[in-house]
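Person: At home tonight, work slowly through the protein below, taking as long as you need, and write a paragraph about the fold.
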Amino acid sequence: MVSERDVFKFPFDSLTEDNVNSLQPTINEFYNSIPNNQEITLAQQQQAIANFSPYVNPKSMHPKFGSYSPMDWTTETMLHLLHTTNDGRYILADYKQNDGFLSDDSQNLLTQLLINHLFQDNSKGTDFFFRKIADLIVEIFPKEQKSIYFIPAKSEGHQQTHAKGKLIERWKNVARRLRSIGAIKFERYNKKEIVTSSSPIIISDEVRTAKKWLETDGLNADFQLVKQNWALTYEIRRKENLDSQDRFLSNIFLTWPILQGPKGYELIVEDFKIAFPETHSLYSEWNDFLNAWETFSKRLINIRRSSVKDKHAQALLSKLDTACLDGDSRTSNIIKILLLPFLVPTKTQIKNSNSKANSKFWKPSLSESVSAFAIHVTNMVKFQEDLTQRQDRYSQYGSSIQPFMTFVGEDIQSIHTCYVRVNQKFWHFECPLKTLEVCFKSYFVFHCIYPKECYDSWLIIQKHLFKLNTEYDKQTSITTTVSAKMQSFEVPI
């Protein structure tokens, strides 16, 4: 048991002096008589809580703290929580140690602290509250990005989305747990129907003929002739893909079977040239892409390395260090690709489309998210066994396996073959980075959604390697965090 003789130390120097003095006048009234870092007894701490804490008197009308309802929260409200809780003191110390930035752990602790306070105040979670809280966070921690904690819902346009961010995610998790035991009432909201419209597709006879030819004669024709007819049908593909409600890549490959041939990936590259000439010209020479990849991967690893907790990923990082010291660029690039979903992990729940399933949602594990992006197998027999198990598991969720990368070799150092797997077909490559390029362009050219299991990993590649942004991008707390740090190193093009 803690006695009154036990003491506590407050890190008042965790924030700058100017910041604390301007944001914390009320708390300082209690502490002004106590020199910086002097020991404070339990009795003194309890007195501070009794006077100012919203947990003790949540509806008080203190002139500085307001009524403790979220819309009345002030910076003093938040600073008080930071200075009078263990989690808060950890956050402040981390803030100082990281030169004004918060680590992933501190961002999560801060979110937990504030959402718990929100529920303690018996306040319902609304977008107005989350927006206000996010504003207060960046006021106290200026180097934090507001969009990490709150991204407002988008209710207009083709892509309508729910509000997102760490505050939203934490609030939903706590609310779900409290509802499950009847601690709070369940409220159901009617979803607004999303209405989409598209302009009619006008197809000329010439284009119809070319498309039909690609489906039949094109499968065995001279590839130069294939490319000519492919270019001729570009507009119909673009319209079909933009207007489609089902943008899964596997379905599109069924519509255009020519893509499943051994040179199908070259057609992907051709469409990318037409659709995104600026990005194509950015890497018109392969060495330009290699240099960009080296810069991108090095920055990402430097930024995210300390956040990697998975033992397999940590082992990959050690192997990467060895490969870099040995000058083995091929092995280094393979390891970097395999590390991407660990460096930018995707946390999501996927609605189960199988009506016979026991669970309404599927929450992919880290291993499942990684496998949806890229895998290393020792041989193709082992790969087929693993793939069959994955297909069985996905069928239980009413889902299908989207294209992903596969690296084959006895160990990481002896990988001899790289594949992009699409619809039971394999595109074969010698170069691991060509594998990454084609897999990415496959999704992007056909306006398809990335696999939800590894969405965040692909989005970071899109934005910071290929320098592409679209209205369909769905930012999450981790992509916002990573993007902010990556952009601090990037030079505008």
